[in-house]
Amino acid sequence: MPIQPTAKIxxxxxxxxxDKAQIHVMSHVVHYGSSVFEGLRxxxxxxxxxxxxxxxxxxxxxxxxxxYRMPMAYSLDQLSTAVVEVIEANGIAPCYIRPIAFxxxxxxxxxxxxxxxxxxxxxxxxxxxxxxxxxxVCISSWNRSAPNTTPSLAKAGGNYLNSQLIxxxxxxxxxxxxxxxxxxxxxxxGSGENLFIVRNGVIYTTPLANxxxxxxxxxxxxxxxxxxxxxxxxxxxxxxxxxxxxEVFFTGTAAEVTPIRSVDRITIADGNPGxxxxxxxxxxIGIANGLRPDRYGWLTPVNVxxxxxxxx
Length: 312
What we know:
Oligomer: single chain
Distance between the termini: 29 Å
Mean pLDDT: 96
Strand content: 25-35%
CATH architecture of the largest domain: Alpha-Beta Barrel
């Protein structure tokens, strides 16, 4: 999915031209992967547009930076305001937003403390992340990192080297995505998505201790499931539970709610998105697009005229 350039990018408190958002090849992040980042979506509304769960995403960015001892010069409110500022400056919605903080040009060597921290926020149009109406996936030969290696709760750039291996392996073998196991052989997550299983009316998802990112969409789906009175269990799960599940789906900012049709060429139930997946997906997208009540205060309005407003 090629990036579509926009006019401005937010950099350390200022809006700069897209083409001027450049770094030196000797920046610490290039050599050591020292970045933390976020991914958000701004959705069209019946009137205008809104960012989905903006403060939660910006808090996770700050949390990731804290885990990696990366000093941030901006508060939660300042970062949230900056996201709105760059969206309104570019006048593009719906869109995807990518805030990133990284160690810049300073010193060479693993110790990053004398390299400055730069913060950028970009937004651009970006459509469906996982192609098709449902995904055919595989169990990856690559495990997620053990809990005491690289911290999964930090959304850090270096973690996604592992994700790249998972995604590329799936692609060359004819799948759209891979599911990783943790170091103990239990289910973890996709290359960039959290994992949910439905069996006998109960929703299961892998807990944070299984080397998974604390997904904002994951939390949203758990919240919606409890609102509907659906039983939810967070527990370690063996891979074979996927094969005998009634429903399986991914969640994530990019993936939203993506039904899984098959795992390792084994069809999940009848291969169609199940009723629980559909109900949760419809409610999630309905809230994000302003078509259902924002009962949890998840939407932050932005002053952008959407070319094709969402229909009520």
